[in-house]
Design a protein that fits this description.
- This protein has a five-stranded antiparallel beta sheet.
- It contains four helices and five strands, in the order H-H-E-E-H-E-H-E-E.
- Strand 4 (about 155-165) and strand 5 form a beta hairpin.
- By secondary structure, it is an alpha+beta fold.
Length: about 180
């Protein structure tokens, strides 16, 4: 826990695909998603708050997109959605994630390149194993956007890194329609 409280790191998983985009910022793993158009960086909290009721988010920069390949035939609504975010949390939420972390995040998760500007340099991040992150974020009790669709969505953490010094969470998650 002492190591976890002193820094920030992501839960790593090999998600590399041949189309991985290398980054000039060596702190991060390669960004691996196919993005046909530049994504708008969002700052609203509603969708994040509803999907992660176990933490208190004070600010966020995030993007989402239906998962796709260059030549995809499935309609968008049948594909999972990936979410990448850099979020500022309240100290209690940060502490819970830091205490669950498993060591220094090196490299940081391969988030959408436009979000990297919100991750301060010189900070130490620690990796939070995805199962522990799921439990702390309390994704089991997420709220759907449409109450008529209760039980149709699920979200799961793919990678998470927390920085105790800055109360910052780097998150890669996937949302699926069931």
């Amino acid at each position: 826990a002492a190591l976890a409280l002193g820094g920030c790191a992501p839960a790593q998983e090999d998600r590399s695909r041949p189309s991985a985009t290398p980054t000039s910022d060596g702190r991060f793993a390669s960004f691996t998603e196919y993005v046909p158009v530049t994504l708008e960086i969002r700052t609203d909290l509603g969708r994040l708050d509803r999907r992660m009721p176990g933490v208190t988010i004070s600010s966020a920069h995030w993007v989402l997109q239906y998962w796709q390949e260059k030549r995809e035939v499935l309609p968008p609504q049948d594909r999972p959605i990936w979410i990448h975010g850099v979020m500022t949390l309240d100290p209690a939420s940060t502490r819970a994630l830091a205490e669950a972390s498993s060591g220094k995040a090196d490299p940081l998760p391969g988030i959408y390149p436009g979000l990297r500007q919100y991750v301060p340099e010189g900070k130490v991040f620690t990796t939070v194993p995805k199962e522990k992150a799921d439990a702390i974020l309390d994704i089991e009790h997420m709220m759907q956007d449409d109450p008529r669709e209760m039980g149709t969505d699920s979200i799961g953490v793919e990678q998470a890194a927390v920085c105790a010094d800055a109360n910052l969470l780097i998150l890669i998650a996937t949302e699926r329609h069931m």
